Amino acid sequence: MEKIRPRSPAEPRPEKKPSFISPQCPRCGADLALADRVERMERADDEIWHDEWMCPVCRDRIYLDVPGGLS
Question: Rounded to two decimals, what is the model's pTM?
Answer without folding.
Answer: 0.83
